[in-house]
Write a structure and sequence with these properties.
InterPro entries: AAA+_ATPase, ABC_transporter-like_ATP-bd, ABC_transporter-like_CS, ABC_transpr_LolD-like, MacB-like_ATP-bd, P-loop_NTPase. By secondary structure, this protein is an alpha/beta fold. Helix content is 35%, strand content 28%. The chain has one domain: P-loop containing nucleotide triphosphate hydrolases (Rossmann fold), CATH 3.40.50. It has 8 helices and 10 strands. The chain has a 6-stranded mixed beta sheet with strand order 6-7-8-3-9-10, sandwiched between helices. A 4-stranded antiparallel beta sheet has the order 2-1-4-5, covered by helices on one side. The chain binds adenosine-5'-triphosphate.
Length: 239
């Protein structure tokens, strides 16, 4: 089995004004390629801390993160940024688009880390924009788009480098229920096409679209189950 990401005994300690916070207390799990994982948990349980580590946005105090088999611990800061740009597609709750750029230009942004943007890259940006349903909006700027359309741009942007996995932080947190369903349908389609997705969410409705739900509590993984198993457990409990 191939793994998109493997983490072993991850620990993260924050020190703030003399106070020590153990945000992660030894977290270990593997995400096989093609999985769709929802990370849930109460506020303060360590979800954002874990997401930052999975996104190579921060480093653990202790423990190992293997991205596509590469140990990220031995990389310099520059190499870690390169690794993030090449292997992880990140989607944020607030879309994080650049207001001065058009839809197509926003999708291109991760390519700048790699250097030159080729005509072939431009063709792929357009293809992705159409794939996520942005036909007729390619030259619009973020302000001219709805929240759902802006999140579609962010999804296309996350795919431009053909990442090992998509990491989404409350991606539907700012969207109404209909638009949430549309974005989740897009994720489901990407996962059915083989994309690995890891999503942090507070909402059961969102996590139910995943294949696997991991619940965090006080810096640890409290439970980790396949959703089919949960469905059958609920059905057994109800009968
Ligand atoms: N930069 C930081 N400095 C100090 N403490 C921090 C820092 N970031 C997070 N923490 C603490 O680490 C713990 C875990 O925080 P984290 O943000 O990972 O939780 P979370 O599950 O994402 O919460 P939420 O759902 O509210 O976003 C909390 O006690 C938090 O106060």
């Amino acid at each position: 089995m191939k793994f998109a990401v493997q983490v072993d005994d991850l620990r993260k300690v924050y020190r703030l004004k003399g106070e020590t916070v153990h945000a992660l207390r030894g977290v270990s799990f593997d995400v096989p390629e093609g999985d769709y994982v929802a990370i849930m948990g109460t506020s303060g349980s360590g979800k954002s801390t874990l997401l930052n580590l999975l996104g190579c946005l921060d480093r653990p105090s202790q423990g190992k993160i293997l991205l596509g088999g590469y140990d990220t611990g031995s990389l310099s800061d520059d190499e870690l940024s390169q690794m993030r740009a090449a292997r992880v597609g990140i989607i944020f709750q607030a879309y994080n688009l650049i207001q001065q750029l058009t839809v197509l230009e926003n999708i291109e942004v991760p390519l700048y880390y790699r250097g030159k943007v080729t005509p072939e890259d431009r063709r792929r940006c357009k293809e992705l924009a159409l794939m996520v349903g942005l036909k007729g909006r390619l030259d619009h700027r973020p302000m001219q788009l709805s929240g759902g359309q802006q999140q579609r741009v962010a999804v296309a942007r996350s795919l431009i480098n053909n990442p090992d996995y998509i990491l989404a932080d409350e991606p539907t947190g700012n969207l109404d229920s209909r638009t949430t369903e549309e974005i989740l349908a897009l994720f489901e389609r990407l996962n059915n096409e083989g994309r690995t997705i890891i999503i942090v969410t507070h909402e059961d409705d969102v996590s139910e679209h995943a294949r696997r739900v991991m619940r965090m509590s006080d810096g640890e993984i409290a439970s980790d189950y396949q959703i089919e198993n949960r469905r059958s457990a609920l059905a057994t409990a109800a009968s």
